[in-house]
Backbone:
C-alpha cells in the first residue's frame, strides 16, 4: 500500500471515529424521546420501512462519503458525488464559507453493490451543490460560479468558467442546482431560468422557463419534473426547449404545472424538529408533519429493476419528515397529472430523525439510489426559527457533521450490477434500446460527446424502426446532438411516425431550420398549426420561424390569434413570441374589440403588468446604493420567494410590488419581517393561502444575524422598490416593534396585525 493511500485511509478512519462515537446498534422507535442519537448506517436501515418486496441496501457511508448532496454515474458505473461538508456547522452557520467541500469518485470494485474505493477528484470547494459529466470533463457548481473541469485520468485538468452568475444571490436553499442533462442535449437546472450546452468546444447559455427549487428529473418523453419545498410535484407538459423566448413572460401555461396537488405526508415518527412546528396545523396531534415542508430531489423512475408498477412513477424526498413519497403519473395526452400512490403510508419512511434524503437517482443497475445527508440540522440559517433552534439544542442535533450515506432500493434478495458501457458506436446505438433510462441517456451522451459520426447510418435506421419507440426518440435527439438531424428526417416522422414521436420532431424542428430550407419549414409549421392535435406544440415554433422570415411568423401568429385565442397553451406560445411587442399586440386586440376574457388577452395583460419600465430599473439601481444592506437581504432572502421584481412566485409567495402590506402601516411590515406571517393573507384584494402558496413566511429577527439597522434597511428598501412609494423606516421604528413584542417567537396572523 502506498504511503499516500495509507494517509488517506488513516484520515478517513479518524474522521469516522467522531461520527461513530454516539452510534448505537440497537433499534428504537424513539417516539417520545428528546434526543436523536446517531446510528451507524446498517442499523439505520433497520429503522426504515420500505414497501413490501423491496429492501434498502447500503452503498456507501462515512468515511467513504460525507455530507453528500448530489451524484451522477459515469460510463464505468462509478458514482461521482458532491459533498457539501460545510453546510450549517451550527445554528448560525459559523464557518459555512470554509473551503472544505469535495467532489469524489466512489468505485465498487468487487461488484457487491458497496463502494470500496474513494478517490477525491476536487477539494477545497465552498458548498459545491451540483455536478454533470459532459464531454471529457465535469461541470461543478460552487456558488456563484459554474465551472467546467477537464478530466485527465480521473484528475482535474484545465478549468473554464462557464457562468459567473450561475447561482448569484439567494442562499443555499434557493440557488440553482441539478445540472440535469435532458433528452434534448441541453443541461437544465432547478431554481433557474438558464440552460447550458457545449457546442464545438464552446459553452452556450440560453434562457428557458424558471423551474423548481432543489432537484430535477425527466420522463421518457424528455419532459422535466421538479418541485419546491411545499409542493409535491411540478412539471412541464411540453419539451423543455420550447418557449423561454420572452423574459417578460411569467407562468406560461404548460410549464411549472402542478402535477400532483396533494401535499400530504405520512411520517412514522414525530417531527417536532421542523422549522414551523409551533404553528397550528403544521403537525398533527401525534406531532407528525401534515404536509410537505422540505420537498426536494424528485425522480421519475425509468427502469425495470424494481417491479413494473414503479416504472414511470415519481418519487419525492422529504428530509424534514424522514421519508420518500411515491406518486403515480398519468399521461393523458397534452396534460400530465398524478396522484399519491397511498393515502396513509409512504414508499419509504424512517424513525431516525437524522435520515435526511435530499436527492434521488436511478443507477445504471436499475436500482433507486437515495442520497442521505445524515445530519441533525437540515434547515438553513436564513430561515431558522427560534423554535427550531431550541429543538436542535434540546436534542443535540448540531453534531456530528462528518456523516453521510448513499443507499439503493432493490427487490429483496437481488444484487443488480452497475453497467459499464461498451464505447463502440454499434454497441452505444444498441444501448439506446435498453430498458434502463439512465443507460440510454449515457449512451446518447457518449455518442454526442465523442462525436461518433460513424453511428449516423445506424441512428437513421433506428429512427425509422417503429418497433422501438423509445429507441426512435433517442435516435432523433442523438442525431440532433451530432448535428446530423435533417429537415427530411423531421418531415418523414411527421408523415409516418406515431403521435408521440411527432411531438419530439416538433420540439427538434428549430434546430434544423436554416435560411436554405426556411420555405419548406414554413409550410411544415403552417400545416402543424392547422391540426388541433399538434397546434399547441407547433405554436411555440413561431420565434424559430421568425428568425428567418418575420412575415411568415406574423401571418402564423395572426392565424393563431383568430383561431385559438381562448386556448391557454397556444395563448402562452403567442405571448412567448411577442417579446417587446406585448403592448402593441394588446392594443391591436382592443382595436379589434377582442374578448377580454380570452386566455390571450389575460396573458398579455399579465405580462405587461410584470414588465418594468427603464425608469423603474434606474430607481432600483439607486435604491441599491441608498440601502446596500437592504438590497443584499432582498436578493439573498426575499426574492427567492417573492421574485426578483417583487411580483410573487406561483406556489411560493404573494407579490410585494404594490402590496397593501408593504405600502401600509410600517409597524405591521416590520413585525412581519421580524417575526413572520402565517395563514391566509389578502394582497391586492386577492386571498393567498396554502396550497396555492407556502402558508407561512418566516421572520428573520430571530436569527441573530441582522441588526436593527439591517432590518430598517430591508423594510425601507421594499417600501420604495418598483411601484411602491411608502415612507422609509428608521432604527427607532424597529426598536419600538421589538420592545412591544419582547419574547415573541411565533409569527403573526393577518388578524393580529389588524388586516
Residues:
Amino acid at each position: 500500500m502506498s504511503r499516500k493511500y495509507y494517509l488517506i485511509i488513516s484520515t478517513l478512519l479518524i474522521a469516522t471515529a467522531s461520527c461513530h462515537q454516539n452510534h448505537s446498534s440497537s433499534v428504537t422507535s424513539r417516539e417520545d424521546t428528546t434526543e436523536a442519537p446517531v446510528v451507524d448506517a446498517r442499523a439505520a436501515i433497520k429503522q426504515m420501512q420500505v414497501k413490501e418486496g423491496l429492501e434498502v441496501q447500503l452503498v456507501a457511508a462515512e468515511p467513504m462519503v460525507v455530507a453528500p448532496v448530489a451524484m451522477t454515474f459515469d460510463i464505468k458505473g462509478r458514482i461521482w458525488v458532491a459533498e457539501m461538508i460545510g453546510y450549517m456547522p451550527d445554528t448560525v452557520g459559523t464557518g459555512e464559507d470554509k473551503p472544505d467541500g469535495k467532489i469524489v469518485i466512489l468505485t465498487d470494485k468487487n461488484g457487491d453493490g458497496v463502494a470500496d474505493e474513494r478517490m477525491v477528484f476536487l477539494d477545497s470547494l465552498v458548498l459545491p451543490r451540483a455536478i454533470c459529466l459532459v464531454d471529457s470533463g465535469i461541470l461543478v457548481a460552487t456558488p456563484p460560479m459554474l465551472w467546467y473541469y477537464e478530466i485527465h485520468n480521473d484528475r482535474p485538468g484545465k478549468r473554464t468558467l462557464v457562468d459567473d452568475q450561475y447561482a448569484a444571490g439567494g442562499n443555499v436553499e434557493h440557488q440553482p442546482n441539478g445540472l440535469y442533462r435532458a433528452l434534448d442535449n441541453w443541461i437544465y437546472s432547478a431554481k433557474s431560468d438558464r440552460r447550458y450546452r457545449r457546442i464545438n468546444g464552446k459553452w452556450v447559455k440560453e434562457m428557458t422557463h424558471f423551474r423548481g427549487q432543489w432537484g430535477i428529473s425527466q420522463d421518457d418523453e424528455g419532459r422535466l419534473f421538479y418541485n419546491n419545498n411545499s409542493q409535491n410535484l411540478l412539471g412541464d407538459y411540453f419539451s423543455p426547449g420550447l418557449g423561454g423566448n420572452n423574459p417578460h413572460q411569467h407562468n406560461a401555461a404548460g410549464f411549472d404545472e402542478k402535477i400532483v396537488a396533494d401535499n400530504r405526508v405520512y411520517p412514522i415518527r414525530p417531527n417536532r424538529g421542523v422549522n414551523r412546528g409551533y404553528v397550528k396545523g403544521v403537525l398533527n396531534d401525534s406531532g407528525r408533519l401534515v404536509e410537505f415542508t422540505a420537498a426536494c430531489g424528485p425522480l421519475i423512475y425509468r427502469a425495470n429493476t424494481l417491479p413494473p408498477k414503479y416504472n414511470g412513477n415519481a418519487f419525492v424526498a422529504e428530509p424534514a419528515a424522514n421519508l420518500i413519497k411515491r406518486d403515480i403519473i398519468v399521461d393523458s395526452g397534452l396534460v400530465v397529472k398524478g396522484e399519491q400512490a397511498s393515502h396513509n403510508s409512504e414508499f419509504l419512511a424512517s424513525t431516525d430523525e437524522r435520515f435526511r434524503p435530499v436527492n434521488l437517482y436511478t443507477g445504471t443497475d436499475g436500482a433507486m439510489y437515495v442520497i442521505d445527508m445524515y445530519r441533525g440540522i437540515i434547515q438553513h440559517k436564513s430561515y431558522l426559527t427560534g423554535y427550531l433552534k431550541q429543538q436542535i439544542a434540546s436534542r443535540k442535533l448540531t453534531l456530528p457533521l462528518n456523516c453521510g450515506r448513499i443507499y439503493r432500493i432493490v427487490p429483496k434478495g437481488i444484487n443488480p450490477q452497475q453497467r459499464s458501457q461498451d464505447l463502440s458506436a454499434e454497441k452505444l446505438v444498441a444501448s439506446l434500446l435498453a430498458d434502463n433510462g439512465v443507460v440510454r441517456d449515457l449512451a446518447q451522451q457518449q455518442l454526442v460527446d465523442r462525436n461518433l459520426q460513424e453511428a449516423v447510418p445506424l441512428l437513421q435506421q433506428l429512427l425509422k424502426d417503429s418497433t422501438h419507440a423509445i429507441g426512435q426518440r433517442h435516435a432523433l435527439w442523438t442525431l440532433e446532438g451530432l448535428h446530423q438531424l435533417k429537415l427530411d428526417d423531421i418531415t418523414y416522422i411527421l408523415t409516418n411516425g406515431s403521435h408521440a414521436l411527432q411531438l419530439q420532431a416538433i420540439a427538434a424542428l428549430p434546430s434544423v431550420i436554416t435560411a436554405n430550407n426556411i420555405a419548406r419549414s414554413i409550410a411544415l409549421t403552417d400545416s402543424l398549426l392547422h391540426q388541433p392535435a399538434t397546434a399547441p406544440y407547433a405554436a411555440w415554433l413561431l420565434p424559430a420561424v421568425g428568425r428567418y422570415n418575420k412575415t411568415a411568423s406574423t401571418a402564423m401568429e395572426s392565424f393563431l390569434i383568430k383561431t385559438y385565442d381562448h386556448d391557454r397553451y397556444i395563448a402562452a406560445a403567442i405571448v412567448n413570441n411577442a417579446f417587446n411587442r406585448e403592448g402593441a399586440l394588446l392594443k391591436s386586440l382592443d382595436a379589434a374589440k377582442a374578448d377580454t376574457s380570452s386566455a390571450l388577452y389575460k396573458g398579455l395583460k399579465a405580462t405587461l403588468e410584470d414588465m418594468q419600465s427603464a425608469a423603474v430599473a434606474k430607481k432600483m439601481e439607486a435604491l441599491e446604493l441608498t440601502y446596500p444592506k437592504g438590497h443584499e437581504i432582498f436578493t439573498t432572502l426575499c426574492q427567492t420567494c417573492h421574485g426578483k421584481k417583487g411580483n410573487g412566485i406561483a406556489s411560493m409567495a404573494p407579490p410585494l410590488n404594490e402590496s397593501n402590506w408593504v405600502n401600509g402601516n410600517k409597524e405591521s411590515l416590520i413585525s412581519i419581517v421580524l417575526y413572520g406571517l402565517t395563514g391566509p393573507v389578502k394582497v391586492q384584494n386577492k386571498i393567498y393561502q396554502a396550497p396555492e402558496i407556502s402558508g407561512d413566511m418566516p421572520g428573520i429577527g430571530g436569527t441573530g444575524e441582522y441588526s436593527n439597522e439591517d432590518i430598517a434597511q430591508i423594510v425601507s428598501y421594499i417600501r420604495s422598490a418598483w411601484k411602491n412609494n411608502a415612507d422609509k423606516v428608521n432604527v427607532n421604528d424597529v426598536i419600538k416593534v421589538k420592545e412591544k413584542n419582547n419574547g415573541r417567537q411565533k409569527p403573526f396572523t393577518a388578524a393580529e396585525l389588524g388586516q
User: Anything to note?
Assistant: The radius of gyration is 26 Å. The chain has three domains: 3-244+256-411, 467-610, 614-749.
